[in-house]
Write a structure and sequence with these properties.
- The protein is α/β, with parallel strands linked by helices.
- The protein has a single domain, classed as pyruvate-formate lyase- activating enzyme (Alpha-Beta Horseshoe), CATH 3.80.30.
- Helix content is about 35%, strand content about 20%.
- It is built from eleven helices and twelve strands.
- Strand 10, helix 8 and strand 11 form a beta-alpha-beta unit.
- It is globular and about 55 Å long.
- About 5% of the residues have low confidence.
- Bound molecules: iron/sulfur cluster.
- Iron/sulfur cluster (SF4) binds next to loops.
């Protein structure tokens, strides 16, 4: 998400007891994150709010071990505990493939699907479980969806064969990679468990080079030390579409464990303090946006920028 992945809908409405066809047993822990497994009643959720131009959102997981400090999804999780522990737990929808398979072939033809709105479909557990991949296989073989994939992970390059298969079978795919800054200190403060932005840029360049539509989403665009060099490195990926959005510090919420470090760093970067850095941040955002606009093709902004690409 959104935005981080994308702004909120309902708090994981599809998590409920349902038919189970468990994955082969997966790990109970991966790195810093506890992994649990539960069946879901539905895997496609009606898209609302910021994503209302889409038909469905698709979240193979609840929770996200990338643990971004600003992740709005954290504030829609089930309890104070899961909010406070955001980034340190993942709930796998173990029957997601079986549930998606229950849809009649062709039922998702032409449907706009956003994967994912409250989790990252390529966070580290995906390497072990290949759950996102199974969902893509089902879509490739049985439907012609219009799919937007949103991630911060280079793991997405694994599935370029399936993105192309969906296209070859009559569907559409765009892969969005979120890149938020050219400053690794900022990245570490706000996105402590995410891959570096350089790694993400390389990955989205590979997706583009593999013949899959690609987009870099700077949502939120946190900070750029050198806007012109940042723009050039974005252009060098070969990607042709970009979306930016400011972080709304006024309204923004932070995951408890990372809030102080993130706010202190932004105050430091803007040469102000926690109480006054917001205006300076917005002036910085506007400066960076103008530099990006001058250098990049197809730079959208905010909700309009997030409109379905096809
Ligand atoms: S990558 Fe995960 S933690 Fe970060 S914004 Fe997306 S869903 Fe939230």
């Amino acid at each position: 998400m959104t935005t981080t992945h994308s702004p909120p809908q309902a708090p994981f409405p599809e998590l409920a007891p349902g038919p189970a066809e468990p994955l082969a047993v997966g790990p109970a822990r991966l790195g810093h994150a506890a992994i649990t497994y539960a069946p879901a009643r539905e895997i496609l959720t009606r898209a609302t709010g910021f994503m209302d131009a889409y038909d469905h959102t698709l979240n193979p997981y609840s929770g996200c071990s990338f643990g971004c400090a600003y992740c709005y999804a954290a504030f829609f999780s089930r309890s104070r505990q899961t909010r406070d522990d955001w980034g340190r737990w993942v709930a796998v929808k173990e029957n997601a493939a079986a549930v998606l398979s229950q849809r009649k072939p062709g039922a998702l033809d032409g449907k706009l699907i956003y994967m994912s709105s409250v989790t990252d479909p390529y966070q580290p557990i995906e390497r072990e479980l290949k759950l996102t991949r199974r969902l893509l296989e089902i879509m490739a073989d049985r439907h012609k969806p219009k799919l937007v994939v949103q991630t911060r992970s280079p793991g997405v390059t694994r599935d370029t064969d399936l993105f192309r298969r969906i296209e070859d079978n009559g569907g559409r795919v765009q892969v969005n990679m979120t890149v938020t800054t050219d400053d690794e200190d900022v990245r570490r403060a706000f996105e402590p468990f995410c891959p570096s932005n350089a790694v993400r840029m390389r990955a989205i360049g590979e997706v583009q080079a593999a013949g899959v539509e690609a987009c870099v989403t700077m949502t939120p665009l946190l900070w750029a030390n050198n806007p012109d060099a940042f723009a050039e490195s974005l252009r060098d990926t070969g990607v042709q579409k970009f979306i930016a959005q400011p972080f709304h510090f006024q309204r923004g919420k932070f995951v408890a464990s990372t809030r102080d470090a993130a706010l202190d760093l932004m105050a430091d970067k803007t040469g102000s303090d926690r109480k006054t850095f917001r205006d300076k941040y917005m002036a910085h955002y506007r400066r960076v946006f103008r530099a990006l606009q001058a250098a990049l093709p197809n730079l959208g902004e905010g909700k309009d920028g997030f409109a379905p690409p096809f």
